[in-house]
User: Fold this.
Amino acid sequence: MKQANTYTPPTLTVDNVIFCLIDNVLNVLLIRRTTEPFQGDWALPGGYNAAGETTTEAMQRILQTKAGVKSDNLQLVEQLYTFDTVARDPRGHAVSVTYMGLGRSVQPAATRSTQSPTFFPVSHLPSLAYDHADIIAYAHSRLQSKITYTNAIFALLPQRFTLSQLQSAYEAVFCRELDKRNFRKKFLSLDLIQETDEMHREGAHRPARLYTFKSQSLQALTRTFD
Amino acid sequence: MKQANTYTPPTLTVDNVIFCLIDNVLNVLLIRRTTEPFQGDWALPGGYNAAGETTTEAMQRILQTKAGVKSDNLQLVEQLYTFDTVARDPRGHAVSVTYMGLGRSVQPAATRSTQSPTFFPVSHLPSLAYDHADIIAYAHSRLQSKITYTNAIFALLPQRFTLSQLQSAYEAVFCRELDKRNFRKKFLSLDLIQETDEMHREGAHRPARLYTFKSQSLQALTRTFD
DNA sequence: ACAAAAGTGTTAAGAATACACCCATGT
DNA sequence: ACATGGGTGTATTCTTAACACTTTTGT
Assistant:
């Protein structure tokens, strides 16, 4: 553990993948880079992590500053992976700790420091700076696993939601369709949600029962979903 | 992304959790610290990661230097998690990227630089430096998941093994017993292993058929195990 | 002959899949 | 009355779980 006095650590950065459902489509938050490298390209909201600041603190600060997103708008945050190939930043070796954040209706607020924060459907991303396309792919795949063995989907849904919304959230993340009757039977049997006595009325059709999650904290499922 | 010229990154370290089965017991590799802090305590083999070196390279260098373990003795290596609480190192903020390595029969070779590399049963660990007990607990839990949805167990077993050895490897990682007939039926149905025409003879009892894994690379299972 | 681990099958309960029609509402 | 999404059940197949005895070997 002796540290030569020549020791120089790499730059440490934090990059954030913020997911959110918009019109039943899975979206990810991007900003437009205002400086080189990759000036003008879209990128994940990320930034430097200085000594004395935890990566979680850096994540919150960066989201607020660059995207105008408050971290209490994220229902679930999870560290993903640390990307560290030497060539990923043309300016020099930068190690990036990545986080995934899930929100219901994240409203990026434009401020003086924000950089055009915009949600893009995961299936139609623009070309991205650095290795951010890889990071998003990794996050998406982690999210798919996460909703199969935990109740993580709660973080993408409003407090009260219909079974159709729930199914459609699963379909948006999985990128495939599910059978309505089997979905309902299985999900109800997992004992994660409760009926409310409210109904959702919208459009010229039968109103839908609203449900809530019994717990808004991450819990493992007794059986894996899907 | 403007970087104030006052930017100082935290120290970056890599810590490694090396698992190995010894007499059907899950063991983890520790070294004895020779310097402060935590001098004399047991710790994971870890060390500094300088700019220009990937964390994987740092892992290999550190394992070789501090524990005399060559990385080709590890059948599977996976990044785990990045631990970054400011207080985890009393000398100052150090962010640690952690790796899990699985080996068959890792023989730590003592060299001038090694620090008493020793395997300890996961269920009987000595008191540990830093937050290394947390890191091992995290790694163990990840390993348990990993063997339920992938063929990762291959990395802990010799090339040829008996079904009893295989079952006992699962039991060692899960810390619980499995039913012999159900285990064999299920595992054989996963189509991961092949009979060889060799038998393992040992002791005063019926010889056991030896099997091999069809693939020595990580693969997802069609159904989750257990 | 005995001790020790290897090997083997059946039954019952639970879970997954496939699949089509009626219901309640707004216009 | 019609268009729209909400809501519901059954039969079949597959998977899991519980459970005990015979086989082959070395001493």
User: Anything to note?
Assistant: Chain A is about 25% helix and 30% strand.
